Automatic annotation (TrEMBL):
Protein name listed in UniProt: Triosephosphate isomerase
Active site, UniProt feature: H93 (electrophile), E163 (proton acceptor)
Catalytic reaction equation(s): D-glyceraldehyde 3-phosphate = dihydroxyacetone phosphate; L-erythrulose 1-phosphate = D-erythrulose 4-phosphate
Protein's UniProt keywords contain Isomerase: yes
Residues the entry annotates as binding substrate: N9, W10, K11, G169, S209, G230, G231
């Protein structure tokens, strides 16, 4: 049985004032059946971890360097995220692939570093609109999976997030049929590569304009184990209903 997961990606948003949202969310879900993770900017990780202490809420980073330390100005190593209180790290988000030219090979190295540091990597894959229109969705997702996921990945160290680029921040959610096609494909690919045990245990998240209003339908979709949420994760008022829908899906 896969434990469902609601992960919030704050991206480059949030100040210390937003830490109150963490407290509110933790208070709203004191003992959730699903896992709830917030990934604030790195500068807020330590104070967020302090707020979340003693609650069911878990924290994550939004990127890490493949090396554990060294001369890499501006970068953050996976062990540093762990020390600051993170249990997760988002890797290979399409915004990082676009803004920083991140390649799948780099994502794979980062995922290995995250695993070494005891973090669970939330590895993101997803096609652009042009790629979908060209009928290349599954081949793009398959290639990103093959190149971004380390050889020794485990279900504890890996979560896979399908985030179609055209659905991120656009209000344009993928349909259930579109999500199911990709998630079923990802499940089959994981099983083919890692065997039935790991293949069946890795959690698959959907991301892209998830809101309280569409969450229940998305969580009822084949092989969807939760969501990676951007804009609607910034406040407890918006993220709470998404978590509640996930809790209801679990029941
Ligand atoms: O990119 C996303 C999460 O990583 C999705 O962002 P939105 O939920 O704002 O569309």
């Amino acid at each position: 049985m896969r434990r469902r997961l609601a992960a919030g990606n704050w991206k480059m948003n949030g100040s210390r004032a937003a830490l109150a949202e963490i407290a509110a969310l933790a208070e709203a879900f004191p003992a959730p059946a699903s896992e709830i993770v917030l990934c604030p900017p790195a500068t807020l990780l330590a104070p967020a971890a302090a707020r979340a202490e003693g609650t069911a809420l878990r924290l994550g980073g939004q990127d890490c360097h493949p090396e554990p330390r060294g001369a890499h100005t501006g970068d953050i190593a996976a062990p540093m995220l762990a020390e600051a209180g993170a249990a997760y790290v988002i890797l290979g988000h399409s915004e990082r692939r676009a803004d920083h030219g991140e390649t799948s090979a780099q994502v794979r190295a980062k995922a290995a570093a995250a695993q070494d540091a005891g973090l669970t990597a939330i590895v993101c894959v997803g096609e652009s609109l042009a790629e979908r229109d060209a009928g290349e969705t599954l081949s793009i997702v398959g290639a990103q999976m093959a190149e971004s996921i380390p050889e020794d990945a485990t279900a504890e160290a890996l979560v896979l997030a399908y985030e179609p680029v055209w659905a991120i921040g656009t209000g344009r959610t993928a349909t259930s049929a579109q999500i199911a096609e990709v998630h079923d494909f990802m499940r089959a690919e994981l099983t083919r590569r890692f065997g039935a045990g790991t293949g069946d245990a890795v959690r698959l998240l959907y991301g892209g304009s998830v809101k309280g209003a569409n969450a229940a339908e998305i969580f009822a979709t084949s092989n969807v184990d939760g969501a990676l949420v951007g804009g609607a994760s910034l406040t407890a008022a918006d993220f709470g209903p998404i978590v509640a829908a996930l809790e209801a899906a679990e029941a």
